[in-house]
Each structure stands twice: as C-alpha cells, then as structure tokens.
Amino acid sequence: MRCAAFLFITLFCLASCSGNHSYSPKPRGYYRIIFPKKEYQPYTGGCPIMFDYPKYAKIEPDRNPDAKPCWMNIQFTQFNGTLHLSYEPIRSKKEFDKLVEDAHKLSFKHTVKATGIDAGVISYPEQKVYGIYYTIDGNAASSVQFFLTDSTKNYIRGALYFNTEPRLDSIQPVLSFVKQDVNVMIKSFRWK
Q1: Between 88 and 110, where is the model more confident?
Q2: Residue 131, Cα to own-chain centre: how many angstroms?
Q3: 100-145 residue pLDDT tens
Q4: Which of 137, 140, 141 is nearest to 176 (CA)?
Q5: Residues with Cβ < 8 Å from 59, sequence gap 6 or more?
Q6: CA–CA–CA angle 108, 92, 121 (5° rounding)
Q7: Is the pTM above the cut of 0.90?
Q8: 124 Cβ neighbours under 8 A, 6+ residues apart
Q9: Nearest to 150, CA basis, from 105, 121, 99, 190
Q10: Sign of the torsion formed by the C-alpha atoms of 12, 16, 18 and 19
Q11: Cα within 13 Å of Cα(13), Cβ side
Q12: CB of 153 within 8 A of CB of 168?
C-alpha cells in the first residue's frame, strides 16, 4: 500500500509539471543609475595647486602610511570610485625624469588586461600646465591616468579606480560621466 501511495504521489507531481508552459530565463538586469547635475567647486586647499572638481565628490587626504603631504583622493562615493592624486615638488631634472617614467610604467602596467592604451598630450601654456593623459581601454583596473607638470617645480599624477570588478560593459556609463569631470579638473588646473 505504501509503495502504491508513493508511486501515485510521484506520478501526480510529474504530471502536474508537464504542460505547455514555456520557460525563458529573465534577462540580466542592471541598476538604474541616476547621474547628479554637473556642478563644480574650486579646490584651494593648502597645497600648491588649484582646480575645479564636482560638487557631488569629496576630497580626502590619502590615509596610506606611505602618503606624502598633498596626496589626496577625490571620492566619487555615489559611483564607488576614487581619483587618486599624488603631488610631488620637483627638485632636479633627474627627479622629474623619474616621475615621468614612473607615470608611464604605472599606466602601462595595465597592458595585461587592457585592449589598448592611448596617450594624449596635455598642453595649456597660458596656465603652464603640461602632461600626458592615458586612456586605458578594456577590463583594466584603471581606465584613466594622467600627470600634469609645469616642467620646473611641480608635478601631480592622477589615477581613476572603481572599487568593483573591472567589467567595462557594466561601468561604461559611469566611467564616461566621471571622465568628463576629470577633463574639467585638468582644464581648470592651476599652480599656486
């Protein structure tokens, strides 16, 4: 009797699962991103630099134990990203050449995951701001890196990172939005 009841329940369950029900998996969804209004404010802290940065971002000193004075992070908390800025005073031509070479090496470290790295020259002679802007394509950890200098006394390096697994297809809208803010920052850059 038990065997017949078990067989009946099993057949009933299988029969109820059959039918003309078509199943298709739900498409992968992404979070809706609401971008803030583009508004900027000046940074005029105690460092020998000035620039405009977005009002939705906040600037914090770099808390790394190896950080030097005037190293700071621009936090894009809404997007879980950080623009790391490292300022260095230039004391000699040899030191300047080493800083430029380090910026190049650090940018090209992403070659393993990058599908391409483009370097563009930054030149604003009226502000005495020169440098190189590295655009890193693909699933690299950093998509934007740059350095700015006046070629005699001041040097600053920037690197944008998002605190998430680097998947370009999913962060592309946010990356494009933040890159515009980085470009505004670079164009407004001044030495004190």
Answers
A1: 88
A2: 19
A3: 999 999 888 877 777 888 999 999 999 999 999 999 888 888 889 9
A4: 137
A5: 43, 45, 53, 72, 73, 74, 75
A6: 40
A7: no
A8: 130, 187, 189
A9: 190
A10: positive
A11: 6
A12: no
Instruction: Read off the tokens for 86.
Output: 């490292």
What would the pLDDT profile of 149-169 be if each residue is shown by its tens digit? 998 899 999 999 998 877 777
CA–CA distance, 47 with 180 (Å, rounded to integer): 24
Q: Encoding tokens for residue 87?
A: 């300022």
Q: Across-strand partners of 131?
A: 122, 148
What's the full length of the chain, in residues? 192
Checking if the pLDDT of 29 tops 70, the result is no
Q: Where are the beta strands (DSSP E) in the chain?
A: 40-43, 49-54, 58-61, 71-76, 81-89, 114-124, 129-138, 142-149, 154-162, 190-191
> Of 125, 126, 129, nearest to 191 (Cα)?
129
Do 78 and 34 form a contact (C-beta atoms < 8 A)? no
Mean per-residue pLDDT for 82-106? Answer: 93
